[in-house]
Amino acid sequence: MQRIFEVDPWKIVTHKLDKQNKRLQESMTSIGNEYMGMRGMFEEDYSGDTLHGLYLGGIWYPDKTVVGWWKNGYPKYFGKVINAVNFDKTNLWINNEKVDLATDQISDFELSLDMKRGILTRRFTVEKKGAKVAVTIERLVSIVDKQLFDLHYHIQNLSDQTVDIRLVSSIDADVANEDSNYDEKFWEVLAKQTNRDSAELFAKTKPNQFDVPRFTVGVGITHHTTMEAGMAPETDQSVSNAFVQTLAAQQSLNFEKRAVVVTSRDYDSFDDLRNGLHQLTRKLDAKSHDQIIQEQADAWQARWDKSDVVIDGDVAAQQGIRFNLFQLFSTFYGDDKRLNIGPKGFTGEKYGGATYWDTEAFGLPFYLSLADQKVARNLLEYRYNQLPEAFHNAHQQGLKGALYPMVTFNGIENHNEWEITFEEIHRNGTIAYAIYNYTRYTGDDSYLKEKGIDVLTAISRFWADRVEWSEHRQHYVIHGVTGPNEYENNINDNWYTNLLARWTLKYTLENLPKVSPEKQHDLDVTEDEKKQWQDIIDKLLLPEDKERGIFLQQDGFLDKNLQPASSIPADQRPINQHWSWDHILRSPYIKQADVLQGIWYFITEFTPEQKKRNFDFYEPLTVHESSLSPSVHAILAADLHYEDKAVEMYERTARLDLDNYNNDTVDGLHITSMTGSWLAIVQGFAGMRIENDQLTFKPFLPKKWTRYQFHINFRGRLLVVTVDQNGTQIKLLKGAPLTIQLNDKPVTLEKQS
Amino acid sequence: MQRIFEVDPWKIVTHKLDKQNKRLQESMTSIGNEYMGMRGMFEEDYSGDTLHGLYLGGIWYPDKTVVGWWKNGYPKYFGKVINAVNFDKTNLWINNEKVDLATDQISDFELSLDMKRGILTRRFTVEKKGAKVAVTIERLVSIVDKQLFDLHYHIQNLSDQTVDIRLVSSIDADVANEDSNYDEKFWEVLAKQTNRDSAELFAKTKPNQFDVPRFTVGVGITHHTTMEAGMAPETDQSVSNAFVQTLAAQQSLNFEKRAVVVTSRDYDSFDDLRNGLHQLTRKLDAKSHDQIIQEQADAWQARWDKSDVVIDGDVAAQQGIRFNLFQLFSTFYGDDKRLNIGPKGFTGEKYGGATYWDTEAFGLPFYLSLADQKVARNLLEYRYNQLPEAFHNAHQQGLKGALYPMVTFNGIENHNEWEITFEEIHRNGTIAYAIYNYTRYTGDDSYLKEKGIDVLTAISRFWADRVEWSEHRQHYVIHGVTGPNEYENNINDNWYTNLLARWTLKYTLENLPKVSPEKQHDLDVTEDEKKQWQDIIDKLLLPEDKERGIFLQQDGFLDKNLQPASSIPADQRPINQHWSWDHILRSPYIKQADVLQGIWYFITEFTPEQKKRNFDFYEPLTVHESSLSPSVHAILAADLHYEDKAVEMYERTARLDLDNYNNDTVDGLHITSMTGSWLAIVQGFAGMRIENDQLTFKPFLPKKWTRYQFHINFRGRLLVVTVDQNGTQIKLLKGAPLTIQLNDKPVTLEKQS
């Protein structure tokens, strides 16, 4: 655990420029608006350790880099998030010397992310070349005008002598990814133009040898200031505008840079894109700075009104949950159907903005409750729209039906490690489960009937082809898989995978008769196929150990040396940073919920005894080194009335990044896992379920807290749930009356006038 | 199967320029002298499909390229054979137009590798720009003067008009590997000089971010011709000499290029290297072309005298075995202790010149019988000298003792796929076994006592740390391994691995008391350690199926869908080119001998019944898609008197490359597997074993053949064994009298005067 920001209910704030942990500071002060986003790196050149990361939603490159021995079935390329053309770049000179906070003498440093308004502020006083200057820099990516990045400087001369201030504002396409092997660059400049106080640059991703379309991006910068403009040096890859002003003693100046960013994702031709950029720039340039700030604050307030979680009695917990909500909404708010939720959002290169099963497993329930229903539906349609690519992925492996990708930008599998790409097929189960989850929560079966059934049928066909009959076991088996616990690879009969395979077949068979005759005709599931599916449902192996009363994570799991995770010396945790992969694989330790993930998905369908035995067996073997792990365990612990355990698990998920629990936040935030703290509160502490088509709650109040409160969007209603020492209060803020179950008793909610 | 060369006992010859199979032609016409080698690509630019491959023994680059997710314990870099500075490059102009056989009109083409003399000859007649010219090009890498490459042109004007001939001879450092991802280059030119008719160039491998030394190479070219010299254009990366002559009608010319190549592997400083190059160039330049040719022929004859295998009645088989011997000797002849046998030798980039366990498993028995004893000892010392690096490799995985690398240039593991690097640890067993194999064959236990015991102890300590106690099984187990059958990954209790682990511990315990007290003191194997080793020997799981009377390849192997390989449709073979890796892993199909590899190693220690049951169970499941597979099966089939099967397996190994059996010879030859045909004849058909410290034979004659004959070097003797319809004749050609067993009867051999 490493806490480098101060505890505050609405801000991520520090008063120290922590050069040792600069990247961690940057990860934590990321901002985004779904369309684009960036780490909290400085605008100016910084000669110390830093990771400049600026990303555009849906802009990526198909990398062909190959190492090791090719395995048949691998995708031809793997997708790579690319660092965008750098449009935040702005350098500051004081008396003709460039400011560099890595080496300059500074004081009064503050870095503060205002989550209520979505604005990042940096302040510092710098003394150099006889001058003393106070600088305040505010930046935002607008959630009102997605294409707008705004950067505002307030610079004051604190000394009694005049000071020469120079600002150079740039757009730079000479950008590499840090994970490049041979410093390869991905942007080619198409056109650029520099005017007196504005500039623009158009760049295209470089050619690829696959059929992946190249992306074009256009950026225009304009400036609002009293400073005097002059031409700045430019290069083949960049454009710049320079501004100068001599400040008298105590005098100050304001300088605002606006960057408008358009991409070929939204335009049909280069001319359209260029015209679009010009129109947008004109439109956005007409807004005042105050207006931009006010609109940003109002829009964030509207989001908070629908979703805020209040925790009394624990400011750190309060800060944690708001940080998670803020970063999730910054990554994805459902405005663009073609986008999804990247595990690191816009906060780092690693795992970047690609789509994983995290979305359906952990993101969907969150957005179902906290945003309009169409957001969740858009997430489902994203997969429906990528069904052709999922057929392709299965075909690559010589299998029938559809296999959704482990990692993707366009629906095609974009990752090439066999134990993931070929084996972590349980992801298909979660894609199917998400349809059920949506339908159950919203009560809306139109998606299931119109589109979901296509996905379910295609996935069922995959499972039916992927199982094998074992003469020796007299069961269908699923060999060669990796379960959610990625600390095991190439195992046989992962209970979780087999459970989801069997469930998918069953759910598909149940729903097929409910869809329209036309749809049934199109899907063409034959009687033989249905019989085969039923046979698999009846005879698929779900390994168990009867003696212990547990489901077996996989064949042979009990052969391992089953010492609890508590026996691992503290200096060897997390094991993934201390043990070789070989050691990890042989160990019994579980990275994240595996059997328990299955129990969570169908939590109302297992007996308390089953839940208890499995939790008691598996949790002590679990190291929770996936950020996706603690939330599931918090929910199950709460379900079993292990309240202390539930709170312990909550604490790991709520401040995972803020306290750098897994010692890897330096690479970026664990965006998709951030739903976990919300899930732990809502499904865990408050025990929210859907049972018999009703919303139900069985809340408890963690000892440390005096009160917690959260909002729930449910079937057109907005509810606010408050839990304190006096019990639970549920209020209907919007929508028609609703009957729910609270502690096993029906309660009818009506809006108070 | 694809046969593109003519059948001939001593030549690899074709009269067709097969543009579709140009790379295959190139692989098959590779030449080498252990110090350097090259594919059979043309000297001149060729605009069609070709793979230019020229490699220097021991010259490589540590590549940092990373893709996928880093696994803890991976080596920091992986070694990459790099394409050497191109010194064979020579272009021919006829009437001012460059010859390019991809597009020119040619006739009388011949490409012929003379294996008796080690010379590659190419002939063609080309008609262009009104001229008709006959060209004969001979090339060799000298096995007498290792640093010498010799290229000789005979060019004749076949027309009645004069023809302008121009030859440009170059050294070019602007060379990339074909498997490069971003066209990265590995050579930096240090210095170069061009004289009137000679030139030189010095280049260094580019810097790396590891502690791997950079290599420097120096190349000097000289020319012997009546052509007139003139200056040729040169570039930053290359030097060239140009020569011109106008040929009258029917007139001809000779042109000889000699390249002398030195590397920093043999010199302490750049000055030494430069001086060394100049001295060598002067010395070698003093030889006449005839002398170079004659010395080459004589030296190859001396090799053949000690090793030739004669097969009567089957010219294809005859050609196959000689091709294998020729290519093996071209790759490695034991002159340089620091070198080893690369799986593709100098014939391709893939798997290039790195060292694999193939050397000990398949190469050692070959060199033991066909070369001086010191060659085999050098192979063992190579591993002894890399013991510190083997400790490092084990340490990387958090394990005690020594782990020899799967792939290496310098003893450090140089491959980074976890299922290989971390899991294919059986390689350690073969390193240990090789010590036993050498000692048993030579009768010389000095290596074992002086150096081998260090290796054995270090490997035993690895095994003792790698096993785990399974409470559930009440056995020691070895989880998470890949056996020789690489079509299974991350399996538990591979019988072969466990067998070798147990055997190593036993052999080490047996031999420890025999070494000097000083050595025992240094090794410091404690009594507790010995007790632990004995406990592992007693309780290590060696999985069996009692009912079937077989050893189990791994835990759970019988759960698979056990259809024989014969049930795979022909158009899906080889499966590694048709099935996804996932499909392969789930299948029961075996790439190469696994259980049977263990039975081969200890062939005299299993009962005929055990051998039969295991062969009958596993061979039908084996697809022999490793080139290392058929030979082991040929030997075992012969042992079981399955003579037809033995011959079938022999045929797959003998002409594996010549007939492109696995459809991958285009990438290069399967050098280390080439020992297989010799093993199949000698250990298979002739049944050679060492039993009770005696050489024994139980030969049979394959039906197709009328006679076969081979040479054996054994404990200072040279024997020739002849098998024909009349039985077996064994003659002692050199050395002291020797008693052997022939068909279970003792025979004493004496040299005939």
UniProtKB/TrEMBL annotation, chains A, B:
<dbReference type="GO" id="GO:0005993">
    <property type="term" value="P:trehalose catabolic process"/>
</dbReference>
<dbReference type="InterPro" id="IPR011013">
    <property type="entry name" value="Gal_mutarotase_sf_dom"/>
</dbReference>
<dbReference type="InterPro" id="IPR005196">
    <property type="entry name" value="Glyco_hydro_65_N"/>
</dbReference>
<keyword id="KW-0808">Transferase</keyword>
<keyword id="KW-0328">Glycosyltransferase</keyword>
<dbReference type="GO" id="GO:0047656">
    <property type="term" value="F:alpha,alpha-trehalose phosphorylase activity"/>
</dbReference>
<dbReference type="Pfam" id="PF03633">
    <property type="entry name" value="Glyco_hydro_65C"/>
</dbReference>
<feature type="domain" description="Glycoside hydrolase family 65 N-terminal">
    <location>
        <begin position="14"/>
        <end position="265"/>
    </location>
</feature>
<dbReference type="InterPro" id="IPR005195">
    <property type="entry name" value="Glyco_hydro_65_M"/>
</dbReference>
<feature type="binding site">
    <location>
        <begin position="591"/>
        <end position="592"/>
    </location>
    <ligand>
        <name>substrate</name>
    </ligand>
</feature>
<dbReference type="InterPro" id="IPR008928">
    <property type="entry name" value="6-hairpin_glycosidase_sf"/>
</dbReference>
<dbReference type="GO" id="GO:0030246">
    <property type="term" value="F:carbohydrate binding"/>
</dbReference>
<dbReference type="InterPro" id="IPR005194">
    <property type="entry name" value="Glyco_hydro_65_C"/>
</dbReference>
<feature type="domain" description="Glycoside hydrolase family 65 central catalytic">
    <location>
        <begin position="322"/>
        <end position="678"/>
    </location>
</feature>
<protein>
    <recommendedName>
        <fullName>Maltose phosphorylase</fullName>
    </recommendedName>
</protein>
<feature type="binding site">
    <location>
        <begin position="357"/>
        <end position="358"/>
    </location>
    <ligand>
        <name>substrate</name>
    </ligand>
</feature>
<dbReference type="InterPro" id="IPR012341">
    <property type="entry name" value="6hp_glycosidase-like_sf"/>
</dbReference>
<dbReference type="InterPro" id="IPR017045">
    <property type="entry name" value="Malt_Pase/Glycosyl_Hdrlase"/>
</dbReference>
<dbReference type="Pfam" id="PF03632">
    <property type="entry name" value="Glyco_hydro_65m"/>
</dbReference>
<dbReference type="InterPro" id="IPR037018">
    <property type="entry name" value="GH65_N"/>
</dbReference>
<comment type="similarity">
    <text>Belongs to the glycosyl hydrolase 65 family.</text>
</comment>
<dbReference type="GO" id="GO:0004553">
    <property type="term" value="F:hydrolase activity, hydrolyzing O-glycosyl compounds"/>
</dbReference>
<feature type="domain" description="Glycoside hydrolase family 65 C-terminal">
    <location>
        <begin position="688"/>
        <end position="749"/>
    </location>
</feature>
<dbReference type="Pfam" id="PF03636">
    <property type="entry name" value="Glyco_hydro_65N"/>
</dbReference>
<feature type="active site" description="Proton donor">
    <location>
        <position position="486"/>
    </location>
</feature>
